[in-house]
Specification:
The complex is a heterodimer of chains A (about 350) and B (about 240). With about 350 residues, chain A is mainly alpha-helical. Chain A has helices at about 5-35, 40-55, 60-80, 90-115, 120-140, 150-170, 195-220, 220-230, 230-235, 240-265, 275-290, 295-315, 320-325, 325-335; strands spanning about 185-190, 190-195. Chain A starts with a helix and ends in a 9-residue tail after the last helix. The longest helix of chain B has 16 residues, at about 170-185. Classes of the chains: A mainly alpha (about 350), B alpha/beta (about 240).
């Protein structure tokens, strides 16, 4: 193999790896805080990407309506839970956050969708829509199960993934879509050619990782999230609501997913079900990081991206097999290192 | 004096097994109340239920408000604090972060003043402010757990076995701080196996056996009680009053 091909594959691998790193970090974050293994992370990717692509091509994305519908259900959940101690402030707050907000976003989306909005508007709307879906998803599917076992949460997670994938088919159809590049143009450095889009991927990934690091290290809410991950009872005794931590975790995960989708969709055609496989690679990285370590996950994600790039060059038929086989030695090592544990008791 | 915390006819069960039966208790303002009893008597279970960690049948009122529908976090916001037996610290975070999170529900400006107050109360924590909580000694962890709870500005602090496993000199320090808390207006509900030390600083006391209170009254009277002396204080009083 000559150096040019190797460098090209490395570059490709790092671009993909950067996306997997973001997704892997989101998975670790959600698992650490809520104990949910977030299989629908891939759907956040698809929803973000296809909402963006739909808007950019002047179509109305069904996800905006889904956000409103989920908001109505979330509001009903809030009111039902608080039925015996309802007060005006609670009702108004729930009504505003769950119904008025998505209704406004739906109206804005309807207005812009008809006139092929600029890229920045498409990105902003896509992020807001998917963020709301993430937030309501937590309220509807996971918050009521917060005290159950990891297994129950996993089953719910699989159910949510299937439901969202089905809805994705309904909203976006079976045809794939591509979106406009966030940053057009390219430049060459030696034998390497950097597109504006790949630079965007690097830039946003680095910005997000630094942002998350600052958020967790310096802000009270970031620390509260870490505290919930370290010790749920301790966090509750300090007055930190685990539901608030869950909401923040899901909000971050959905924004990260949507942003990843928006970064990928100008590079490759995405279908309603493409997100699952992309999310799964983030999951491989998260597993290598033991679902707890952020730096290990980010590093593993880059390895996954690079292995994928090289295997697609040498044995493209076995690309996925090779990537997922990375898990086997890691699981083997972890099983040898970790003592046998009894089944979780709750 | 109107009671700050009043528990009436409380029952707590693990499945079909009742760990706490028909317990009635009051803690007044500026009071240290202690519950003494052997291991497994139900003391920790009772504190957990008052805090909302375990479901409780009966009535619990705090500052005149019924707590039945309130979550742990709401109880914390009302001024009820618990330092549990296992401390439940954020072990991978440093001392300062642990303390800062204790004031999660408190205004930021007040939290800053609180943290200085905690450092005055526990100077050791100030020395260790950047150290991870998990690397502290047992005594320091206990101080941090108390400090974190105090950052939430509780009106009533419930302490579960604060002296467990600690060196006598640190135990004395912790009990001294508990009396200082009372002087600063914080009531304390203290659960202890070290009955001698607890009864010395408490105003009121309850003796718990097999999930029930078998004796209650002024701490000094309880300490003078023959049966209590024989069972929990490790010696027999001469001429102590019979039960």
């Amino acid at each position: 193999m000559n150096t040019t091909i190797m460098l090209f594959l490395l570059q490709d691998g790092i671009t993909n790896g950067a996306i997997y790193a973001l997704l892997g970090l989101a998975l670790v974050l959600v698992f650490a805080v809520t104990r949910v293994i977030l299989i629908p992370q891939g759907e956040f990717v698809t929803y973000g990407a296809l909402t963006y692509a739909s808007l950019a091509s002047g179509q109305m994305p069904g996800t905006a309506k889904l956000a409103l519908a989920m908001g109505i259900v979330a509001c009903a959940f809030d009111l039902f839970v608080a039925r015996k101690a309802l007060h005006a402030r609670l009702v108004l707050r729930s009504f505003f956050a769950n119904i008025v907000l998505p209704a406004i976003v739906l109206a804005v989306t309807l207005y812009f969708a008809a006139q092929k909005p600029p890229v920045a508007v498409c990105i902003a709307l896509s992020l807001v829509i998917v963020a709301m879906i993430g937030l309501y998803l937590y309220r509807i599917a996971f918050q009521p199960l917060a005290h159950t076992s990891v297994l129950v949460l996993l089953i719910a997670s699989v159910g949510v993934h299937l439901a969202l994938q089905g809805l994705g088919l309904l909203f976006f159809g079976a045809e794939g879509q591509r979106g406009p590049a966030v940053l057009s143009g390219a430049f060459t450095a030696g034998s390497l050619r950097f597109t504006g889009q790949s630079l965007t991927v690097y830039g946003i990934t680095i910005a997000f990782i630094v942002g998350l690091w600052l958020f967790f290290g310096l802000t009270l809410y970031g620390k509260a999230l870490r505290a919930t991950a370290v010790n749920r009872l301790g966090a509750r005794l300090a007055g930190i609501r685990t539901t608030l931590s869950g909401q923040i975790a899901f909000l971050l995960a959905s924004v990260i997913g949507a942003l990843s989708g928006i970064m990928i969709v100008p590079i490759t055609t995405l279908y309603y079900d493409s997100g699952f496989l992309i999310g799964l690679k983030g999951f491989v990285a998260a597993i290598i990081g033991g679902l707890v370590s952020y730096p290990l996950t980010a590093g593993a994600a880059l390895v996954v991206g690079i292995v994928e790039a090289f295997s697609s060059f040498y044995a493209s038929n076995y690309k996925e097999v090779i990537v997922f086989m990375l898990l086997i030695p890691v699981l083997l090592l972890r099983s040898l290192a970790a003592p046998a544990v009894e089944e979780e008791k709750d | 004096m109107s009671a700050l915390l009043s528990v009436t006819d409380a029952h707590v069960a693990y499945g079909k097994v009742e760990a706490v039966r028909s317990v009635t208790l009051e803690v007044g303002k500026n009071q240290i109340v202690t519950i003494v009893g052997a291991n497994g008597a139900g003391k920790t279970t009772l504190l957990s239920a008052i805090m909302g960690i375990l479901p409780l049948k009966g009535r619990v009122a705090f500052a005149g408000q019924d707590l039945a529908r309130l979550d742990i976090e709401d109880r914390v916001a009302m001024g009820l604090g618990l330092v549990p037996e296992h401390r439940e610290l954020f072990v991978t975070m440093n001392v300062e972060d642990n303390l800062e999170l204790g004031a999660f529900r408190i205004e930021k400006s007040r939290a800053k003043a609180s943290i200085e107050r905690i450092y005055t109360l526990f100077p050791r924590l100030k020395e260790r402010r950047k150290q991870l909580a998990g690397t502290l000694s047992g005594g320091e962890q206990q101080m941090l757990a108390m400090g974190r709870a105090l950052m939430g500005e509780p009106k009533l602090l419930m302490l579960d076995e604060p002296s467990l496993g600690l060196a006598p000199i640190i135990v004395a320090d912790i009990f001294r701080i508990v009396t200082e808390l009372r002087a600063s207006g914080v009531s304390v509900l203290l659960v202890e196996q070290n009955a001698q030390a607890a009864l010395k600083i408490a105003d009121q006391a309850y003796v718990m056996e097999l999930g029930e209170f078998v004796l209650s009254g002024k701490a000094s009277d309880i300490a003078a009680n023959e049966r209590v002396a024989a069972s929990y204080l490790g010696f027999q009083h001469e001429g102590a009053s019979a039960l």
